[in-house]
Design brief:
Layout: H1 10-41, H2 47-72, H3 77-86, H4 89-107, H5 116-126, H6 129-139
Helix pairs in contact: 1-2, 1-4, 1-5, 1-6, 2-3, 2-4, 4-5
């Protein structure tokens, strides 16, 4: 039994990119929405608390989006939620941490500008993509 992974499978890269994109979309809705809320309302809240709340909200919205996608693919509601919750939290958490770290390093944290959001999204996508490829290639785990 081989323990090496073939990293040249274009179809797996394509499928894992699709999965990573949906995860990114779900995470970005909650994450960027939270940062934008605090940026617009000027509610005094500690920077680290905003960033943690953004990560938590990103995880929640990603799980909700994945659940809705699965329901639309005729999964029963309970199975859809179970599958969404069983997706790789490693992937989602790494995505969230890197998006927020990018924001922090480029703007000082919890500040959305026209130029930082695309960078955050690119970093957020690229961080878990190889892991998602590996997981799909090794275990055949695909949530779509």
């Amino acid at each position: 039994m081989s323990t090496t992974i073939d990293w040249s499978d274009r179809q797996i890269w394509k499928t894992s990119a699709k999965n990573t994109f949906w995860c990114l979309l779900g995470c970005a809705i909650g994450d960027l929405g939270t940062i934008l809320f605090f940026q617009l309302t000027l509610i005094p809240f500690p920077l680290i608390a905003i960033m943690i709340l953004a990560i938590i909200n990103g995880l929640i919205t990603s799980i909700i989006l994945e659940t809705v996608i699965l329901i639309r693919q005729n999964f029963p509601i309970k199975e859809a939620l179970k599958t969404a919750l069983g997706m790789s939290l490693i992937s989602m958490i790494s995505m969230e941490i890197m998006m927020n770290l990018t924001d922090y390093l480029l703007t000082g944290g919890a500040i959305l500008t026209w130029w930082v959001v695309p960078i955050m999204l690119i970093v957020g996508f690229l961080t878990p993509w190889p892991y998602n490829y590996w997981r799909l290639k090794k275990f055949g785990l695909n949530c779509h």
